[in-house]
Amino acid sequence: MNALEQMKTNLKLEIQKAVIEAGLASEENIPEVQLEVPREKAHGDLATNIAMQLASIAKKNPRQIAEEIKEKINKEKAFIKEIQVAGPGFINFFIDRSFLSEVLVEIDQTKETYGQSHRGKGKRVLVEFVSANPTGSLHLGHARGAAVGDVLCNVLEAAGYDVTREYYINDAGNQIHNMTLSLEARYKEALGLEAPFPEDGYRGQDIIQLGKQLADEEGDRLLQLDAKERYSHIRQYGLKHLLDKIKNDLKAYRVEFDSWFSEQSLHDRKAVQESIEELTRLGQTYEEDGALWLKSSRFGDDKDRVLVKRDGSYTYITPDIAYHRNKYKRGFDHIVDILGADHHGYVPRIQAAMKALGYDVDKLTFLITQMVKLYQGGELVKMSKRTGKAITLVELMEEVGVDATRYIFASRSPDSHLDFDMDLAVSQSNENPVFYVQYAYARINSVFRQAREKGFSVGLDQNHLSALQEEGEFDLLQKLAEFPEEVGVAARQMSPHRVVRYLFDLSTLFHSYYNAHRVIQEDEDLTRARLSLLVGVAQVLKNGLGMIGVSAPVKM
């Protein structure tokens, strides 16, 4: 518990004592004290609505209750400088922020682990994300999902959860069948032969290049095999190379997985059939028109869903039910699916199936990442200039860099649409948010270099922290103290963009402070105090940037 959290705990205790001393409620009847940060700074640093909560218990007007609580609070113990009663009975607190310098000591002691906590208590969380079909390159939607998923995992780990990152490989079904037929056609074309292309085949450059590569490696040897053996060889070849490319592209994007879960493995272990049998045993299926249906409308879906078609083949949702059943059976405390914008209808179907199987759907969270629009030169970019096809993750990384791509994709709530301005992403201006945050870190390091040239040591100097008295210094200290709680809230709410927003706000406070105050000056004690403050800011910026997978450059 850092200095700010300890102060809040003390303030809550003092409020409870004041309520009891004022005779407003007994200890057993006091509602939980809630503290919030007012939207406007003029309303204080913290506020509580406890007076309104006590109105029915104390049988008094909330404003009168607030005044009585105000008179009984021990301001010194609670580090409170001033208390005001406002509106219908809000109690606003203005903190004596001198204690906040203690946060610099904590940052110095914990360094790269500052911001981490044990809030998650080691609970096991499975996060599945990206999970693109291995039939071509990753596109913008995958890029956003990868950034959101990876940052969420980092935030959850920082908050004390035991996280497993998983990629579900769709290596069974029609997509892989069509990929195999497409690759076989391109292989034959590379050998100079005419080959019919499948109607639903994949026409991208990935398959064309892979067909040429296969022809270079094998020559016409595969043509000598029988059709079944040739199909099996090409299928495995295509899967391996396309999946390897996805893995390499994600690694370049700083995203790696703990588990690569094969859909085919579910079929091989008869897990799909077992899931159908379990649903049937539980009375959750029925036959109609030659098909097997799930009674999903019983559990919140808008209609019942087909599991097995008339021809005996599975619908696309049936293996997914088996996969989610497998997730539950592995014993995770929480399961998170990060899905693309076209999966809204998918969510109630899976939830219904899990309810039908008797699982607790409160353990299952779906995050839907919305559409991305790419702009360059003020115009919407729909196609790659290089290939005439959709923009890929690799092309975006080449155009704007990994830092900017990850930062921008992680900066907004997943459920909001995102306009990605490529020109802004590469600009070295304060309008570019990733540059703005990275420049704050680089600027501090520039100050450190100047300080060393003038003979100052750069590090925490506890003996002179009392020299920090400016409002901007207290604002920075308070923001630094809020970092662990911000990470904890981001983890609990599954909102990784909160950490990105925090870094931007911290950078704004720093740039404003830097422009208003000289750090290195004739007063050596004040210089040491301000250098200590900047050491704390730099560490938190570095920790936060690392959490979102963005570099912290010392020079720009």
Automatic annotation (TrEMBL):
<dbReference type="InterPro" id="IPR009080">
    <property type="entry name" value="tRNAsynth_Ia_anticodon-bd"/>
</dbReference>
<dbReference type="InterPro" id="IPR005148">
    <property type="entry name" value="Arg-tRNA-synth_N"/>
</dbReference>
<dbReference type="InterPro" id="IPR001412">
    <property type="entry name" value="aa-tRNA-synth_I_CS"/>
</dbReference>
<dbReference type="InterPro" id="IPR008909">
    <property type="entry name" value="DALR_anticod-bd"/>
</dbReference>
<dbReference type="Pfam" id="PF03485">
    <property type="entry name" value="Arg_tRNA_synt_N"/>
</dbReference>
<dbReference type="Pfam" id="PF05746">
    <property type="entry name" value="DALR_1"/>
</dbReference>
<comment type="similarity">
    <text>Belongs to the class-I aminoacyl-tRNA synthetase family.</text>
</comment>
<keyword id="KW-0963">Cytoplasm</keyword>
<dbReference type="GO" id="GO:0005524">
    <property type="term" value="F:ATP binding"/>
</dbReference>
<dbReference type="GO" id="GO:0006420">
    <property type="term" value="P:arginyl-tRNA aminoacylation"/>
</dbReference>
<feature type="domain" description="Arginyl tRNA synthetase N-terminal">
    <location>
        <begin position="9"/>
        <end position="95"/>
    </location>
</feature>
<dbReference type="GO" id="GO:0004814">
    <property type="term" value="F:arginine-tRNA ligase activity"/>
</dbReference>
<dbReference type="InterPro" id="IPR036695">
    <property type="entry name" value="Arg-tRNA-synth_N_sf"/>
</dbReference>
<keyword id="KW-0547">Nucleotide-binding</keyword>
<feature type="domain" description="DALR anticodon binding">
    <location>
        <begin position="437"/>
        <end position="556"/>
    </location>
</feature>
<protein>
    <recommendedName>
        <fullName>Arginine--tRNA ligase</fullName>
        <ecNumber>6.1.1.19</ecNumber>
    </recommendedName>
</protein>
<dbReference type="GO" id="GO:0005737">
    <property type="term" value="C:cytoplasm"/>
</dbReference>
<dbReference type="InterPro" id="IPR035684">
    <property type="entry name" value="ArgRS_core"/>
</dbReference>
<feature type="short sequence motif" description="'HIGH' region">
    <location>
        <begin position="132"/>
        <end position="142"/>
    </location>
</feature>
<keyword id="KW-0648">Protein biosynthesis</keyword>
<comment type="subunit">
    <text>Monomer.</text>
</comment>
<keyword id="KW-0030">Aminoacyl-tRNA synthetase</keyword>
<keyword id="KW-0067">ATP-binding</keyword>
<dbReference type="InterPro" id="IPR014729">
    <property type="entry name" value="Rossmann-like_a/b/a_fold"/>
</dbReference>
<keyword id="KW-0436">Ligase</keyword>
<dbReference type="InterPro" id="IPR001278">
    <property type="entry name" value="Arg-tRNA-ligase"/>
</dbReference>
<dbReference type="Pfam" id="PF00750">
    <property type="entry name" value="tRNA-synt_1d"/>
</dbReference>
